[in-house]
Every structure is written in C-alpha cells, then in structure tokens.
Predict the 3D structure of the following.
Amino acid sequence: MPADVDEHAGRAAAGEIKGQRGAASFIPADLADVAPVRSLIDRSVETWGPIAGLVNYAAITRSLDFFDVDPDGWRRLFDVNARGSFFAMQHAARSMRAAGGGSIVNIANIAGKGWAGASNIAYANVISGVHRASDGVVTFRGTDITRMKPHTISR
C-alpha cells in the first residue's frame, strides 16, 4: 500500500503494482505525522489481514554542508526519515507479532554513511538512528530486519 505526499507518484506506484497483477491502493500521507502512519498500517490490516512485510522506503534529503544545516531542515529530516520510519516499524511489528512474525526492510541510500560530498550530517545522523532503532525490533519472535543501502536512489 504506497503512501506519499506526492499524490501523482503514489498513484503511479499503486498502478505499477496492479499492472503486475498485485493488489494495491494509494493513501496520501505525510509520514512526518504519526497519525497517518498508524492509519496506513491499520488500513492495510483491515484490507489484507495481518502484516507480513513492511518496506520503509520514504525519505528526504538534500546535500548540505555541515555549517548550512538549519533547525527547520533538521527537524523535517528527522520527522520524515526517523519518526515516520520508526512508528511504521512499531505499528507494523505489533501486527507481525500477533501473527507470529514478519519481515521489515529499511532502505536508505549510502549517503546515510555521511561521506563527504554524498550527503549531509543531518541525513547521516537521522538514518543511522533509524537503523539503530530497528535493532530492537528483532527481539520480537519471528520478525526479521533487512537494511539496504544502495548507492543512489531516484524516483
């Protein structure tokens, strides 16, 4: 069930899934806000039953020098990338635990390593926090975590 603030892209993603004979519906959501994240998980459970898998792929970033990161930009990065991902994992893991397990895949590009010229310190900090937070999910019986860091991610 794709969710995005970009309605056009979200509907296109749902269309691609349906085009491959999958089932999908799009939900417009700003993942910086926890309520739509929970609603997304709840709607998925209501529509298709217990959650077997979650892919955290939503993220924002922009290249900034260390000295150019401002509090508003930092907050937005944190809210979308960390809060949204964390609460999606938490809420989905509850459904997975009740069903006996599942799988979570967190995808963040390699810029999360914080390499000079590839990203900014704010993005690297937030993404490493998401990956550290996911360590706690493996304590739920039968829930696997996979972390993917492709070199480049584009729409």
In short: The radius of gyration is 16 Å. Residues 1-30 form one domain. Residues 38 and 62 are 27 Å apart (CA to CA). The helical segments are 7-19, 34-48, 71-99, 121-134.
